[in-house]
Amino acid sequence: KFMYKHNIQRNKRAYTLVELVIYLALFTILSLVLSNITISGYKAYKTVRVNRDITEQSSLAMEYITRTIRSASDASSSSTFDTSPGVLILTNSSSTTTFNLSSGVLRISETTAGGTTVGNITGGNISVSYLMFEKIVTAKSQAIKTVLTLTQSATGKSETFYMTTILRDSY
């Protein structure tokens, strides 16, 4: 009986110090790799989100400006052309629309017989750092070239967008 008990105790195996160090090293390496993958993924997500925000704001702003220019009959001489921040004043038979920059926000003001409506086109964490309008006049028509630079405030990332639009009622 004595031998039997002794053999049972000898078959119990515990981890040695070398094995614990190896397991701990493998766990540490695996943790570092997974942490780096997670951090890289988060950075990529932030970059994509910033690009998406800038693209969405620029699309909205340029689409609104383009639609308004196309429906206008004239770009007023009171507009501020060829400089930033530019001011664009458009007229048609029923309203006058003004685009301008105020504290980094692209604003629109529309005056009709019923009164004046004012609103922001851009906002949030995206600011307009450059806005210029250029009036192009030919013998047959008028066009407005718009240059718009948007900047994401937290990262400082900027993108510039260009659009040239012909006034429909000008030809």
Topology, please?
Blueprint: H1 2-11, H2 17-71, E1 74-75, E2 88-91, E3 96-102, E4 105-112, E5 115-120, E6 126-137, E7 142-152, E8 158-166
Antiparallel strand pairs: 1-2, 2-3, 3-4, 4-5, 6-7, 7-8
Relative helix content: 25-40%
- How far apart lie the N and C ends? 113 Å
Q: What general outline do the C-alpha atoms trace?
A: rod-shaped
Number of strands: 8
For the biggest β-sheet, the strand order reads: 1-2-3-4-5
**Beta strand %:** 25-35%
Mean pLDDT: 88
Written as H for each helix and E for each strand, in order along the chain, the element string is HHEEEEEEEE
Individual helix count: 2
Largest sheet: 5 strands, antiparallel
Helix vs. strand class = alpha+beta
Low-confidence stretches: none
Rg computed from alpha carbons, rounded to a whole number of angstroms: 32 Å
Q: Can you characterise this structure?
A:
The protein is an alpha+beta fold and 171 residues long. Helices cover 38% and strands 35% of the residues. The protein contains two helices and eight strands, in the order ααββββββββ. It has a five-stranded antiparallel β-sheet with strand order 1-2-3-4-5, covered by helices on one side. Strands 6-7-8 form a three-stranded antiparallel β-sheet, with helices on one face. Strand 4 and strand 5 form a beta hairpin. The longest helix is centred in the first third of the chain and has 55 residues. The mean pLDDT is 88.
